[in-house]
Design a protein that fits this description.
Number of domains of chain A: 2
CATH class of the largest domain in chain A: Alpha Beta
Strand order of the largest sheet of chain A: 2-1-3-12-6
Helix content of chain B: over 70%
CATH class of chain B: Mainly Alpha
Structural class of chain A: alpha/beta
Shape of chain A: elongated
Strand content of chain B: under 5%
Oligomer: heterodimer
Number of helices of chain B: 14
Number of helices of chain A: 18
Structural class of chain B: mainly alpha
Strand content of chain A: 5-15%
Distance between the termini of chain B: 22 Å
CATH topology of the largest domain in chain A: D-Maltodextrin-Binding Protein, domain 2
Helix content of chain A: 40-55%
Order of helices and strands of chain B: HEEHHHHHHHHHHHHH
CATH superfamily of the largest domain in chain A: Periplasmic binding protein-like II
Largest sheet of chain B: 2 strands, antiparallel
Number of strands of chain A: 13
CATH superfamily of chain B: MetI-like
Shape of chain B: globular
Largest sheet of chain A: 5 strands, mixed
Chain lengths: ~425, ~290
């Protein structure tokens, strides 16, 4: 018996050589950096193409994965916060709402990245899109899409949209009396964040202010009382149905889309919905900015979304590259055409090609230029919650206007002073 | 013997003991977005705050109202349903399985369904009233009626659960008892009073306690149906604790809310238990 079978040994050696070189090549091959961004569900669909193109471009270097969050805005925040509280989050970046930024930044979860932003990039943002990205003077967020409160109107029922609070009330009541629509004006009157958004636009349009930049609460000012009285009058006069007190965006859109209302307050996304085949009002809708009192400027509540990098991420360079790609001018143009997303870069509003094909773009530009952000403090959720509760009791006639607003004011001041006024 | 208790005891300590201790400790500290989520002692400030927090007490009242009314209705309906399901009817298995369907549905989905059922103007209830020339009812936008709507939804969902427990109880009652009662000349209604109810009592108490504790922590149903509104008239303690923790990032205060809710729940269930069991059975339990 031979101890060593030469043929077999050679075969074995070749085998070892082949496999180990394959393994070695595999080990040497640069592995892509895996990054993970959490987005609310609707954004995942609309960025699908962009993400796959980014991954093709960065093939072998970066692999961007998008985690699909829930549909509802606050549910996304709950998910993000839960993951952050557990310590090391699985996400590298989040797509966050404008009102969450101060809270997340104050909790120490976000990475400031002003040193990555070139001055010309910052200058390229439309004025309204610059709001809500900073906390304590540092940049924590880069906007993907802007969002502003708009007034939708029926072109078949009126020649011109109302400009003042009185016109809106009159048009709504007249159209109802003539039996042309069951409802005049539909908006968001449910006790939730939407009600604060509605209020901010109205109080600003009446020349008042919810919270001044020096954190002074102005809820019992003459303008604030007038604005609240008007909101209540919408319901008591019949210009708005009592049902708006439980309307969120969905219900308002449903009523307007099925032709039951003459006017609606909603966000830009409603435009695409109203152009769909099943929309009763397709081709009969105009859009403009919110009403204001005579001699006062109208205002639009800002509700934009943007990317924030998490402090816990170990791949910040790759994440920033992805954010740059997803928010580039081309990406924004594309998302405006396919999804109607409001761009954040001012150049896009001047794009001839887009202007020729879209009647919405100039309105969006105007709305963005008059947009107002909700109070930017880590305590915003509490402050808004107090206001929602009191406004809801005014609308449901649970409390007189002054009493409710006084309570909201006192409670808001309490929240601010409990924080030692250091916001 | 004590060794045999060890696994169960450990489980209870891990699942109940540790969180309670941790929450008690947290309730004496400030831990919020203002402290950058660091945990700092604050000398019982949370407890002083909660005693004067009218919103907490309003929610406590609303939660007790929700729990007591919905559980009472559920028990009454469940007895009827259990008696019905105990009869010899065609396809009994299928009927029993179908009757459990509401219980098997995820709360969020059924709450969304109820939100549309009560919706003004597109919900079916409003449509029916409108064809009769009545309405609009505006059920969910009226503080006087919105809480009733949440109770209806809760009753619809959880009655099958109680009915199931009671059905199991009914099946343990020997038929001979009823036969003997009939021979003695007792009527059907009488038999229900004298045999069925007393024999069902342990099952009733168990289901009442179960459901009370569960209804006390109601969260998802209300969050989806009304979000606590209108004018906070449907807000529960569970919702308030959630708001403080996840929306306001105030974990110290949220822990205080949860603890005080827990204490109120214990007092409340003790009261329910005292009411549900007759005085003599308590005496028996104490003397034995």
């Amino acid at each position: 018996m031979k101890l060593i079978n030469v043929k077999n040994t050679i075969f074995l050696l070749i085998l070892i050589f082949v496999f180990s070189s394959i393994g070695l090549a595999e080990a040497k091959r640069p592995r892509p950096v895996n990054i993970n961004i959490l987005m609310p569900a609707p954004f995942v669909e609309s960025t699908l193409d962009l993400v796959s193109r980014f991954n093709d471009k960065e093939k072998g270097k970066i692999n961007l994965k998008i985690t699909k969050g829930p549909l509802e805005t606050e549910a996304v925040s709950d998910l993000a916060i839960s993951s952050l509280l557990l310590g090391k989050s699985t996400f590298d970046a989040l797509l966050i709402d404008v009102t969450w930024l101060p809270k997340y930044a104050a909790a120490g979860w976000l990475e400031p990245f002003e040193d990555r932003i070139k001055p010309k990039d910052w200058d390229s943002l439309a004025a309204g899109a610059r709001l809500g990205n900073k906390y304590m003077g540092r940049i924590y967020r880069w906007p993907l899409v802007a969002d502003m409160g708009l007034l939708y109107w029926r072109t078949d029922l009126m020649d011109e949209p109302p400009k003042t609070e009185k016109e809106l009330l009159d048009i709504s009541l007249n159209l109802r009396e003539q039996g042309k629509v069951p409802y005049g004006y539909v908006w968001q009157g449910r006790q939730y964040e939407g009600l604060s958004c509605v209020f901010l636009e109205v109080i600003n349009g009446f020349g008042g202010e919810w919270l001044s930049s020096s954190m002074k609460v102005n809820l019992t000012s003459k303008e604030s009382l007038e604005a609240t009285r008007w909101l209540k009058e919408l319901i008591t006069s019949g210009a708005s149905p009592r049902a708006v007190m439980n309307f969120s965006e969905t219900e308002a859109l449903q009523a307007f889309k099925s032709g039951d209302a003459a006017l609606m307050r909603n966000w830009p996304y409603a435009w695409e919905e109203l152009q769909k085949k099943e929309s009763y009002v397709k081709g009969k809708v105009g859009v403009t900015t919110m009403i204001s009192k005579e001699n006062h400027e109208p205002s639009a509540t800002l509700g934009s979304w943007g990317f924030s990098i998490l402090k816990s991420s170990t791949k910040k360079d790759a994440v920033f590259k992805a954010i740059e790609y997803l928010t580039s001018e081309n990406a924004q143009k594309e998302m405006f055409i396919t999804n109607g997303y409001t761009p954040t870069k001012s150049d896009i509003f001047k794009d001839e090609e887009l202007l020729a094909s879209s009647e919405l773009l100039p309105v969006l530009e105007t709305a963005l230029s008059i947009s107002a952000s909700r109070p930017q403090t880590p305590l915003y959720a509490q402050i808004s919650d107090v206001l929602q509760k009191q406004l809801s009791s005014v609308l449901t006639e649970d409390k007189p206007i002054y009493e409710a607003l006084k309570q909201a004011e006192v409670k808001t001041m309490k929240i601010i002073s409990a924080a030692g006024n250091k916001l | 013997m004590t060794l045999l208790f060890l696994p169960a005891g450990l489980l209870i300590i891990i699942v109940f003991g540790i969180p309670i201790v941790r929450y008690t400790w947290l309730s004496f500290h400030a831990s919020s977005v203002l402290t950058k989520l660091e945990v700092l002692p604050n000398n019982g400030a949370n407890w002083i705050r909660i005693l004067g927090d009218d919103r907490f007490w309003q929610d406590a009242y609303q939660t007790v109202r929700f729990a007591s009314i919905s559980v009472t209705i559920e028990i009454c309906l469940a007895i009827l349903i259990a008696l019905l399901l105990d009869q010899k009817i065609n396809n009994r298995g299928l009927v029993r399985a179908l009757s459990l369907l509401p219980w098997a549905l995820p709360t969020t989905i059924m709450a969304l369904g109820w939100r549309w059922i009560f919706n003004t103007p597109y919900g079916p209830i409003e449509k029916i009233f409108a064809t009769l020339g009545l309405g609009p009812l505006n059920i969910l936008s009226n503080p006087d009626t919105a809480w009733l709507a949440t109770i209806i939804a809760d009753v619809w969902k959880t009655t099958p659960f109680i009915a199931l427990i009671l059905l199991a109880g009914l099946q343990t009652i020997p038929n001979e008892l009823y036969e003997a009662f009939r021979l003695e000349g007792g009527g059907k209604l009488h038999a229900f009073q004298q045999i069925t109810l007393p024999m069902l009592k342990p099952y009733l108490i168990i289901s009442i306690l179960f459901r009370t504790a569960q209804a006390f922590g109601v969260f998802d149903l209300i969050q989806v149906m009304t979000g606590g509104g209108p004018a906070s008239s449907t807000e529960s303690l569970g919702l308030y604790a959630y708001l403080n923790a996840l929306r306001f990032l105030d974990f110290g205060y949220s822990a205080t809310i949860i603890l005080l809710t827990f204490i109120i729940l214990i007092i409340f269930t003790l009261l329910v238990w005292l009411l549900a069991s007759k005085a003599n059975s308590i005496r028996k339990a104490i003397t034995s």
